[in-house]
Amino acid sequence: MKIRKIFVAAAVAALFAGSAAAAPTTVEGTGVGKHGDVTVAVTFDGGKITDIKIVKEQENKVLAKKVYTDLKNDVVATNSADLDAISGATFTSKGFLDAVKDAAKKAGVTLSKADKKALKKAAKTLPATSSYDVVVIGAGGAGFSAAIEAKNAGASVVLLEKMPAVGGNSLISGAEMNAARNWVQPKLGITDDSPELHAEDTFKGGDGKGDMKVINVMTQNALDAALWCRDYLGVRFEDDNLFFFGGHSRKRALIPVGHTGTEFIAKFQAKADELGIPVITNMKAEELIKDKDGRVVGVKATMHGEDYTFNAKGGVVLATGGFGANPQMVKKYNPKIDERFKTTDAPGTTGEALYMAERAGAELVNMGYIQTYPICDPISGVIELIADARFDGAIMLNQEGKRFVEELDRRDVLSEAILKQTGGYCWVLWNDKIGAVSNTVKEHPTEYDAFTKQGIMKTCGDLKCVADFTKIPQAQLESTVKRVSSMAGKGNDKDFHHRAGLVDMSQGKYYVIKAVPSVHHTMGGVRINEKAQALTKDGAVIPGLWAAGEVTGVTHGTNRLGGNAYTDIIVFGRIAGKAAAEAAKH
Ligand code: ADP
After folding, report:
1. Which atom of ligand 1 is nearest to the CA of 163?
2. Ligand 1 pocket member 88 (CB < 6 A)
3. 208-244: pLDDT as tens digits
4. Residue 24's pLDDT band (cuts 50, 70, 90)
5. How many CA atoms lie within 13 A of 150 on its CB side?
6. b/e per residue, 14-34, with b = 16+ CB within 10 A?
7. Is pLDDT above 50 for 550?
8. Which architecture does CATH list for 14-107?
9. pLDDT by residue (tens digit) across 566-578?
10. DSSP codes of every residue in 347-386
């Protein structure tokens, strides 16, 4: 079925106000987006906008897409820049709309005030009921993997996403992906890794609360999943560098170009487009439909308050992510994580779909295990990817200028340790020698600018400057850095046993940033088996229902190790998609 969104010219014509007629003219205007200026060239004809071209911008490609397509169409259709922002791309929307207003002002054109009701009516949407072999809910990494595999297994597929933009947490993640025996390891001299070791690390890292059968499936299929991403989807990985995340016994995390999920989600979206998979945004799954035998056979969903039904012959794949951006739900399952915590998560990570799964009979497990990411922006809560220099030797200091934990320990250990320090925050400090390996300042220029402007980050030529900025006593800072430098090299850290080895920090330039823990990943969720089938409290399979990714609850135990989310979502997304497609054949 073709998905259409057609503007009815007559309905929107009434919205046009316009101003005095004039010859067609194109004028540039500028607004401020999330990552700097957004400049557009607006063509006006007879006081009405007839075209908008993007001249210059540096926004997140995936999030900005809807702004430059849907929002742009709405502006042209209504001749107004007083429209709602695309949720999930608020700053880009605002920058774009301000740029249009700026251009209108320069052109002497008065724009109209949009009537939202008329705008909604103007968009003709989908049929109320449609049927597919497989319905996938949630367009993050797990959902895209499932939809693409289902389609390639011969099924007709639809992917439903409640937000206006795709990507979920998968988009904003650092997106490193663990795979033992990957192609980069031999280049770094790592020849003794194995899926078994990876599984052992994962199980141990989750305090033995994960399901070893499921973990083994993840680690055994990790390399194949990474190769699928590289060779089939076209995801580009750094060819000579890996991340050594806390809790792992080997360096095994592949790094996507750009160090974020944008690389993955852009390639996922392109593949879905190529395969003709409809991805319906703003469509929220509300209820799973079961037949009289208890098989899940479809989804009831809503878009802008209208009801839609998606029948699923083979079944439904639930890939709706976690609930880290739902503070009430976080507190309900883990009262220790209260209002003091911000979140790193995407706005759609609100977890109602977990209750939907529960209503369909699925068991929710490990819900109280909620991971905080230790190194986040004290103001917005987002992860400071720039401080990933920690994986190559950056040290963590408290306000007194002392180290207080092994910097490569597990996330939960680090978060708790930070919260115990004065003020509940820490400083991450590194120098150019560490920066030369990690390159995080170069990899994350917008973070660098934003954090520096925000006043939580500083680049310094010497330690006096660091002490002045952080208000850490200079003598203690110098003494800590001296001691760290004297213990540089693997196995020499007598204080906290840094597993990769400390680095000589005696010389600048130095980079320092303030950090706090923030809610990051919810380990709990739907109980699944090795085949990604959702299970009931009694361990019975719920026919027709598969689940994959952060919405599931048995892989990571109490604590997810870095780089395991991407492995998890892609391995089980693929398994779920293939299985649901297979079920449609019977
Ligand atoms: P994962 O990493 O497991 O793929 P993500 O957070 O990346 O999880 O993606 C999950 C996606 O599911 C998000 O884009 C989120 O907005 C979407 N989602 C959550 N609940 C629903 C729902 N009820 N209906 C449709 N989409 C949903």
Report:
1. 16
2. no
3. 999 999 999 999 999 999 999 999 999 999 999 999 9
4. confident
5. 37
6. ebbebbeeeeeeebbbbbebb
7. yes
8. Alpha-Beta Complex (3.90)
9. 999 999 999 999 9
10. TT---HHHHHHHHTTPPEE-TT-EEEEEEE-TTT--B-GG
- The predicted pLDDT at position 463 comes to 98
Question: Is the CATH code 3.90.700.10 the one for domain 373-519?
Answer: yes
Band of residue 375 on the pLDDT scale cut at 50, 70, 90:
very high
Please check the confidence at residue 7 and state whether its pLDDT lies above 70: no
pLDDT above 60 (res 13): no
How far lies 181's CA from each of 224, 241, 253, 554, 567, in Å? 10, 14, 10, 24, 14
Half-sphere exposure of 561 (CA within 13 A, CB side): 33
Nearest Cα residue to atom 17 of ligand 1: 138
Ligand 1, atom nearest to 143 Cα: 4
The structure tokens 């945004």 sit at: 281
CATH architecture of 129-369+523-584: 3-Layer(bba) Sandwich (3.50)
Closest atom, ligand 1, to C-alpha of 356: 23
Q: Render pLDDT for 112-132 as a digit per residue (tens, 0 to 9).
A: 876 555 555 545 568 999 999
Ligand 1 atom with least separation from CA of 566: 2
pLDDT digits (tens, 9 = 90+) for 33-47: 888 889 999 999 888
Q: Taking 50 as the threshold, does the pLDDT of residue 8 lie above it?
A: no
User: Is 94 in contact with 33 (CB distance < 8 Å)?
Assistant: yes
Model confidence at 3, pLDDT cuts 50, 70, 90, reads very low
503 Cα to the center of ligand 1, angstroms? 40
From 162, 358, 359, 526, give the residue whose CB has the most ligand 1 atoms within 8 Å, as the site to mutate. 162
And the tokens for 157?
Answer: 């597929």
- Whole-number Å distance, alpha carbon 295 to ligand 1 midpoint, is 23
As annotated, the active-site residues are 411
Measure 362 CA to ligand 1 centroid, in angstroms.
Answer: 18
Protein residue with least CA distance to atom 11, ligand 1 = 138
- What's the mean pLDDT in 487-492? 95
| Three-class DSSP category at 411 | helix
Distance CA 242, CA 183 (A): 10
Contacts of 274 (CB under 8 A, 6+ apart): none
- Beta-sheet pairing, 306-318 with 129-137: parallel
DSSP string, 36-84: EEEEEEEEEETTEEEEEEEEE----HHHHHHIIIIIHHHHHHHT-S--P
- Report how far residue 24's alpha carbon sits from residue 128's, in angstroms, rounded to the nearest whole number: 41
Distance 124 CA to ligand 1 centre (A): 25
CA distance 301 to 391: 43
To test ligand 1's pocket by mutation, which of 268, 286, 349 has the most ligand atoms within 8 angstroms of CB?
A: 349
- Separation of 526 CA from ligand 1 center, angstroms? 14
Ranges of each domain in the chain: 14-107, 129-369+523-584, 373-519
Q: Do 138 and 168 meet the contact criterion of CB atoms below 8 Å apart?
A: yes
The pick from 318, 320, 519, 551 for probing ligand 1's pocket by mutation, whose C-beta has the most ligand atoms within 8 angstroms, reads 320
Q: Whose CA is nearest to atom 14 of ligand 1?
A: 168
Nearest CA owner, ligand 1 atom 3: 549
